[in-house]
Write a structure and sequence with these properties.
This is FadR/GntR family transcriptional regulator. By secondary structure, the protein is mainly α. It is 66% helix and 3% strand. Helix 6 (87-111) packs parallel to helix 10 (178-197), helix 7 (114-129) packs antiparallel against helix 8 and helix 8 (133-151) packs antiparallel against helix 9.
C-alpha cells in the first residue's frame, strides 16, 4: 500500500467510524501525519482525493472539514468514475436504471399534483416543438429529473441524474434515424406523463421501464459491429 493510499484509508476510517463527524474540522496536518505515519505531501494528496469525492471540504483560511455527508452529494461523485465507463459498461448499468426509473415513476404517480402534471406536459410540448437535438436532450433530462424529484428521494434522484448524464454523451437523435427516434421518445413521454397524471403507479412504472429499455436498444446502435472471431472489431488496432 502506498503512502497516499495509507493516508486515504486512514482518513476514510476516521470518518466512517464517526471519529470525525459531518461538519467537523479535521485535525492539523502535523497530528494526522504522525498518527497515520505519512508525509504531509501524501496526506494532502489523500485530502484532495476525498475532496473530489465530496467527503472533505477545504475552506480557504479556515481549515479542512468533513462535508455534511449528504447521501445525494456522495452519490453525485459517482459521475467521476461513471464517465469512464465504455458503452458496453453503460449498457450493463441500464438494467439498474430500468428498475429505479420504474420505482420513481410509481412514486411520482402516487404523489403527483396538478402542478406536476402541468410541468411534465409543458416539457413534452417544448420537446416536440424543438428541432435542436441538444435542446431536446436537455428537455428530456429535465422531464425525467422532475419525475425523480416528485418521487421524493433526493439520493435516488441524484443517482438517476448521474446515469442520465453519462448516456447523454451518446446523441442518439443525431443518428440517421434520429427523427423517428425522437417521435417514439415523445410518444413514450406522453404515455408516462399520462399514467402519472392518472395517478396510476403500475402503469407509470411500466411506461418508465419500457421507455428506458427502448433507450438502451437505441444506444446499442453505437456499438461497433462484431466481426469474425479471429479478426479485430472495427475501430480496434490490428
Amino acid at each position: 500500500m502506498s503512502a497516499v493510499e495509507k493516508a486515504f484509508h486512514g482518513l476514510r476510517h476516521m470518518i466512517g467510524t464517526g471519529r470525525l463527524g459531518p461538519g467537523e474540522r479535521i485535525p492539523p496536518e502535523g497530528e494526522l501525519c504522525e498518527e497515520l505515519g505519512v508525509s504531509r505531501g501524501s496526506l494532502r494528496e489523500a485530502v484532495r482525493m476525498l475532496a473530489a469525492l465530496g467527503v472533505i471540504e477545504p475552506r480557504h483560511g479556515s481549515g479542512t472539514y468533513v462535508s455534511q455527508l449528504r447521501p445525494e452529494d456522495v452519490i453525485g461523485s459517482l459521475s467521476l468514475t461513471l464517465e469512464l465507463l465504455p458503452l458496453s459498461g453503460l449498457l450493463e448499468v441500464y438494467e439498474i436504471r430500468r428498475v429505479l426509473e420504474a420505482h420513481v415513476a410509481a412514486q411520482a404517480a402516487a404523489r403527483c399534483t396538478p402542478e406536476t402534471v402541468r410541468t411534465l406536459f409543458s416539457l413534452i410540448e417544448d420537446m416536440e416543438a424543438t428541432s435542436d437535438p441538444t435542446k431536446a436532450s436537455e428537455l428530456d433530462h429535465r422531464f425525467h429529473a422532475e419525475i425523480a424529484r416528485v418521487g421524493g428521494n433526493p439520493t435516488l434522484a441524484t443517482l438517476l441524474a448521474v446515469f442520465r448524464a453519462r448516456s447523454r454523451k451518446y446523441q442518439v437523435f443525431t443518428l440517421p434515424e434520429g427523427p423517428d427516434l425522437r417521435r417514439k421518445s415523445d410518444d413514450d413521454h406522453r404515455v408516462l406523463a399520462t399514467a402519472i397524471a392518472d395517478r396510476d403507479p403500475v402503469a407509470a412504472a411500466g411506461a418508465a421501464q419500457s421507455h428506458v429499455a427502448q433507450t438502451e436498444r437505441w444506444l446499442r446502435a453505437f456499438m461497433p459491429p462484431v466481426e469474425e472471431a479471429d479478426g479485430p472489431a472495427r475501430g480496434d488496432s490490428a
